[in-house]
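Predict fold of DUF6247 family protein; 115 aa.
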Amino acid sequence: MSAQSDSPYGPLLPMPELTPDALRAAVARIAPSRIPALTQHLFEATTNAQQTQSLAPLRAFVHSWAVFVAIERHPERAARLHHLERIVADGEQDPSDAIAEIRRIREAAEAEAQL
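Predicted 3D structure, encoded as tokens:
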């Protein structure tokens, strides 16, 4: 795991290795309510990988959950992302700025996860 800090308090936990077990352990610590979704996604990715004889579904699983962990391990970043997502979902204002900031948050999380 590698530590990344963007606030005086740092992340809730170090960035885990990009393996299903390490990602599951990280999700269990920062967002335990998301474990069923992670488990379902892993099951589907494994099934699809077997059916298509491709690792692409497993790579997509790791990418998705690594970005989730990279975002959620920083509470302020996660709160900002969720606020921006609500702005877009509400549809009450022009979402352009919110979408651009969401993209920047996700890109930063991808870089942090070394994706």
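The mean pLDDT is 93.
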